[in-house]
Specification:
This protein has 334 residues and is mainly α. 77% of the residues lie in helices and 0% in strands.
Length: 334
Amino acid sequence: MDLLRGLAIFFVLMNHIYIRLRIAKMPFHLPDALVWNGQQGVQIFFAVSGFLITTTALRRWGAGIDIPAFYRLRFARIAPLLLLLLAILSTLDLTHAENFVINPKVATLPRALLAALTFHINVLEARHGYLPANWDILWSLSVEEVFYLVFPLVRRYTWLFIALLVTCIILGPISRTHGNEIWQEYSYLGGMDAIALGCLTALLVQKRQFSPRILVALGTPLILFTLCMYRSIGYSMTILAIGTCLIIAASAQTEWRAPRILSPLLSLGRRSYEVYLTHMFVVFALVWLFRFRLVPLLFLCTIIMSGLVGELVARVYSEPMNRYIRGVGKITPE
């Protein structure tokens, strides 16, 4: 799971660095599979998230679910760092810091805060345009958390839960072909098909055994095909999620562990939430420091520093806050 999440955040980092180069019109080129797969990286993360949340719920509560406890767990994991990030971004906007000021034609600061706290940054941007990059990344959190607001309400009823998952899977690729360019990438249903596939994979793995070799043999080419060759965001994103879920299922049934040589990627995966919410600070700082010189070193340093910042934030803030909130609610960790 950490390896897949690490791969996902790696693609996001590469994409966001390259976008800065394109905006500055720097003549530096890398294969599309490395720099244009930020959206695919988020799709991989969605699939992993759906599997892990469902697996954890099954382990903790079985067929039922403790709704208040589920929401408290999500709040403990998501809210502390999100609230800190919003406080920092608000301060930077009010002090007119470069790269952090919200375009008044898009939104006011209170409007952006409302969108972030009520998980509709994606809707705001689709209607009015992009927010600054550190705000823009919250679109994926909007998709994920709206799904998990509904998750415990339907999880108690297996038939209703499966119906919801199948509906999301069917409508996902359709949603990615409607609306303007922003909505095609950021729509709720456009990301929920991957989460739903992850949830469905968790249910299937609990009930049946599959051949890991066959799963890997099917999943690997699907992932490589969508990452390297197939550029449409419609059905290709669903294909990518299916390939990811096949690998997830194989990993879950064999308890496979990645080799030590992949430890840096695993570390990125373990801290993927912290890295995702903080990496744009690193991107902007290093782009300013390098002044678009030594671009290969810029990529390398950004990936390393983003991982280190994510690790630091997790250890000194988000993990202690997570434990504290769980302790207040008397929820023991898995």
